[in-house]
């Protein structure tokens, strides 16, 4: 992997380690929206129907945030579930976007830039090796890993592997890693969750994995 790729990988894994260290789930208050129709403005709560008067006629109106959001940067784009909080580090040497749901689910997307001769499998081996080292530096046991296997999604293809282990609280943790290519770009997706959140985590990750693409 080139220098730029190593810097990006270190940034992504550092961010992932911070997220996975735990912490209380933060909840934002419900959003209020303003709906303007023909110069009239009405305040509406998310997904709460209200009756408004438009040109003398009473009508029911509601508004909601789309359940699947879209995010695009210079090198790639993807969808993600609205329940995930998004953080973009805007690093020009290796853009990393972190999607989290509390401290239980983390999806880290990193753009490694244009594809090179090494291929996504070599990138995945580097990522998995670094991730394994980070896990071993903490409190873990029963660490298991899988061999890299090819995988294809709707708009990208590459390789995937996983690490599973038990943490200091004896809870099983899963780290699934993907190195993918699309439209001449290479990027990684790292999904980490505890086993209790397996179904939710995999469904949220699938939204991103099925839509992610170079651009």
Short characterization:
24% of the residues lie in helices and 44% in strands. With 215 residues, it is an alpha+beta fold. The chain starts with a helix and ends with a strand.
What does this structure look like?
This protein folds into two domains: 3-25 and 66-214, Protein Transport Mog1p, Chain A (3-Layer(aba) Sandwich), CATH 3.40.1000.10; 32-61, no CATH class. Strands 7, 8, 9, 10, 11, 12, 13 and 14 form an eight-stranded antiparallel β-sheet that branches. A three-stranded antiparallel β-sheet has the order 5-6-15. Strands 1-2 form a two-stranded antiparallel sheet. Helices cover 24% and strands 44% of the residues. It contains three helices and 15 strands. α1 crosses α2 (119-137). β5 (68-72) and β6 form a beta hairpin. The model is unreliable at 18-25 (pLDDT under 50). The chain has helices at residues 3-20, 119-137, 198-211, and strands at residues 32-37, 40-45, 50-54, 57-61, 68-72, 76-81, 85-88, 96-101, 105-114, 141-145, 149-152, 157-166, 172-182, 185-194, 213-214. The protein has 215 residues and is an alpha+beta fold.
Describe the secondary-structure layout.
Layout (H helix, E strand, L loop, with lengths): L2 H18 L11 E6 L2 E6 L4 E5 L2 E5 L6 E5 L3 E6 L3 E4 L7 E6 L3 E10 L4 H19 L3 E5 L3 E4 L4 E10 L5 E11 L2 E10 L3 H14 L1 E2 L1
Helix pairs in contact: 1-2
SSE ordering: HEEEEEEEEEHEEEEEHE
CATH-level-2 architecture of the largest domain: 3-Layer(aba) Sandwich
What is the total tally of β strands?
15
Shape assignment: elongated
| CATH top level assignment of the largest domain | Alpha Beta
Mean pLDDT: 87
The helix/strand class is alpha+beta
Count of structural domains: 2
Query: What is the CATH superfamily label of the largest domain?
Result: Mog1/PsbP, alpha/beta/alpha sandwich
**What's the CATH topology label of the largest domain?**
Protein Transport Mog1p, Chain A
> What count of helical segments does DSSP give?
3
**What percentage of residues falls in helices of 4 or more residues?**
10-25%
Main sheet makeup: 8 strands, antiparallel
Strand content: 35-45%
The separation of the N and C termini measures: 21 Å
Rg over CA atoms, rounded to whole Å, is: 20 Å
Low-confidence stretches: 18-25
